[in-house]
Amino acid sequence: MVENKEDNKTLSADEIALYDRQIRLWGIDAQTRIRSSKILIVNLSYVGVEIVKNLMLSGIGQLTIWDSSVVCEEDLDGNFFVNETHLGKLKAEASFNKIKDLNSRVKLNVITTELDMSDNDFFQKFDLIIGTELIKTNIVKLNGITRNLNIPFYSTGLHGLFGYIFVDLINYQSSLKIPKNFNNTYNKLGEIDSAREIVKMNQLKENDEILDEIIFSNNYKPFEDVINLQNLKLNEVYTTKRKLKKITPSLPIILTLFDYPLNKEKIDDVDIEFKDLQAKNLKTIEILKLNLKNDDEYLKILSKQAFCQFAPVSAILGGAVAQDVIQFLSGKNCFNNFVILDGIKSEMPIYIL
């Protein structure tokens, strides 16, 4: 482990000046919570690199990166913390200095041993854990650990022009402040949908403005439940034709891809037969009871791009993950619970699965 030692502390005058813009955006209390947070990122993938960059610049208290892989040619296209001189070296250690240069105030650690899912004492040190480019079994295992320890969890990965974000904040209470004269659709206590309910409404005054504060209770599912397609009851969530139209062809395909193995050592060798993906995706659609047909255009693209990492797409996806983490640390509304980045249509629908 490489470690940079720096005492964790509340915001100093220098930090208030450094993070002035952020404090203006989400407040000094939120920045203080960000400054005291301890986050673990598993895998310094393309999207992992972007998340690291954004969290370092946000001023979190401690960031630990767990990656046992070495720098390869592919990393040079999407990891701006390494260059040709680092080829064959441990990726996390090679990236350490440039990551640290982003914000010397953040306590930065890197771990280069193999991922050990049995050490609960290690995981419970963190306030939040993010996994990137993990295979399905490891997402299930890691999310099981975070659930047992009551730690919020994110998992994200790329498929060329597509990507996904899974979020499990377990049971999370968030707030939304709306100007008094604004058209507020959250005007009564009770259930909004299967994942959210309004539990409290307050009125307060900030900067001479009267605000309505809405307190939400947000319930999340573990990843194991999300990939158990037989038990997903989307027809109970998307109850109208208008809501059903929000389910795009990319959703069943991304869910189907979780059943394919990923060899991170030989990403260029990923080869998924179009007809095989077509057949498996049709089965997913039938299990989910969706009024969709196989989209051959999407299937052809994803059969060629599955598990591939594109730097421009990782910048968007990594930015979205980091922003949602900041939302969580600030007590604001967050993704619940599955997001798909569709680079063809330039959209990011959020699904309650």
From TrEMBL:
Keyword vocabulary terms for this entry: Cytoplasm
GO molecular function, one term: SUMO activating enzyme activity
One annotated Gene Ontology cellular component of this protein: cytosol
Subcellular localization, as worded in the UniProt entry: Cytoplasm
Coiled coil: none
Example GO BP: protein sumoylation
Domain THIF-type NAD/FAD binding fold: 19-347
InterPro entries attached to this UniProt entry: ThiF/MoeB/HesA, ThiF_NAD_FAD-bd, Ubiquitin-activating_enz
Main location: cytoplasm
UniProt protein name: THIF-type NAD/FAD binding fold domain-containing protein
Organism, as annotated: Pachysolen tannophilus NRRL Y-2460
Higher taxonomy: Eukaryota, Fungi, Dikarya, Ascomycota, Saccharomycotina
